[in-house]
Structures are given as structure tokens and as C-alpha cells.
Amino acid sequence: MRILLLLFLLIPVAAFSQQYRKVVPKRGDVISTLLVRHGLNPRLYERDFVALNKPLLGPRNSLRAGKSYRLPLRKATPKATTRKAVATKATSEKVTAVKGRSGSTAVLFGKYGRPTASDQALRGAVFYLMSGHGGPDPGAVGQYGTAKLAEDEYAYDVTIRLARVLLEHGATVHMIVQDPNDGIRDEGVLKMDSDELTYPNLTIPLGHVARLRQYTNAVNRLHGRYGRKTYQRMITIHVDSRSAGLNTDVFFYHHEKSAVGLRLAKNIHQVFKHRYLRYQPNRPYVGTVSPRTSLYVVRNSYAPTVFIELGNIRNSKDQRRFVLAQNRQALANWICEGAITDYRGR
Q1: Which end is more exposed in the chain, N or C (fewer Cβ atoms within 10 Å of the end residue's Cβ)?
Q2: Does domain 89-344 have CATH number 3.40.630.40?
Q3: Residue ranges per structural domain of the chain
């Protein structure tokens, strides 16, 4: 009887001895991106995460840097697993890849590999992603110690990171500029090259207008594949070049007659305002949203377009932001967060 009683007392202890896995958020993370990184669907687990970690969360359930958070235990939901498997299969068809010069399919995401869809927050949305310059034109170049930082390499790294995050949320993504051998890179100084291609497999011309026309034509041809009611947006990412002494925040351009382009720009801009307020409370965010129809891709793309300048490649403070891989990932995460807000409010 005594032995049986001891066994009975041990049962509830064992039931509650499951260990919650603890994780520390990366810079720029929100709850949804943290959950996605660890293979948990935000729709299924975000409420549980908040309940587990409420005392450690900041305003509006924001994550605090350096804090360790508990991940919810996985739920036994075979049907959800099946849906995830279907979503994963669908995701593999939702990113366009160019053929490299060797004829093999480009590995767009490098060591990170092709993502799987952990939720469907952007299901039905189509994004055209275009990084600035490329091929024979590196764009703006900044001197960083003995190294050179090229606009096209850093714009591309943020863009390919953005592509991966959008895919994780179920979007269809078309990469317009692609590098056959540079996926997501975590190095500080990104090696310059000139082997980028335009979708589907076009050599990028040196001429400025010819290059922009080639990019825009690729977007417009793809745009015709989808119905008029399909949510289609183009995001083009650049790094500005100004006086070396000028530290700039991320700012946004749109077509002056595009109400939906303006809305997308404002939604992304709002995310940046909130994130800067959290991570840099002593420095006001001065990034702006403004019309600039003179930009070729903004003026000629069929898809509503947001043109994003990430900062000044020649400024030492901005350079220190660019060379940190976690900062480049944060930029991609924040752009994606704004896109999700925009899509939900369409």
C-alpha cells in the first residue's frame, strides 16, 4: 500500500516535469518571427507564448533584448501536421529561380536552404522583389577600413532574406535580380562580384536605363500571370549614397498616384517607427514616406511599388549597421511585418 501511494504521488510530478525550451530573441524579432524560427505556427502558439512569458514582455507584448523566453510545448495535432506538409509542398513552387550559367538551378538561400511555410498569413499575396543595381553595376560603394562595401551586395542580402521570410508566411515570391552562387550570407564584408542575372536568365546590361527596363519588363511579364484581383506588390531595395558625414534612417518612395503603394509604404514605415522607438529610444526615427514618380521602376511597374533606401553606404554609423548580419535580418523581418499588416488590411 505504501509503495502504491508513492507511485501515485509521483504521477503528477512527472506530468508537470516537462521542460520548456528557452530561447533568446534576435535583434528585430517579434513574437511571430521568433516562433517561426523555432518551427512553431504563430496562429497556434502565439497566445500560449504570451501566457507563458507575460511578465517578461514589454508594451504591446514586445520582446525584450537579452531576455530568455519559454517556447510553448508542441500540441498533438495530426491534422495540422498534414496541413503543414501540404503548405510545405506548395511553398517549394512559390519562388522563381533562375538557371545559373552551368545550367543548374540557383540555390537562392545558400546555407539556410529553402524555407517551409509555417503559417499562411500571406497566402494569396504575390511579391516581386528587386535589389538595386547588380551585374556590371555595383551601385554606390563605401570605404570601410581597407574594404569596400558595395550597394548591390547589401541590398541583395536584405532582399533574399526578405524573400525567405515572406515564403515562411505563405507568400508567392518572384526574385527579379538573382545571384547564381551568393545566397544569404552572414559575413560582415560581403565580397563584390558581377554575376547577378535578371529573371529568367538574362545577363544584366551595363547601361542604367537598359538595366532598369530589363528589370521592369520581368516584373510586368510575371504580373500578367495573375488575375486583376490578386494582391501583387513590388518592393525594391537600395542603399543610398550621400555625404560620408550624413547618417540616414530607412526611407520610402511610392508613385504619387498609387494609393495602394502609399498604403504599403506607410504600413512598413510604421513598423520601423515602432522598432526604432524600442531599440533606439534616445534617437528619434526620421525616415519618411514620400512620392517620387521620377524613379523608373516606380513609374513603369504594373505592380504597385515601394522603393526602400536602407541608409547611407558611405556613412560610418550606417556601415556598422550593414555589416552585422542580424541587422540585415532585422530589416527583412520588419519589412515583412509591414507587408503582413498591409495584406490583412487590403
Answers
A1: N
A2: yes
A3: 17-70, 89-344
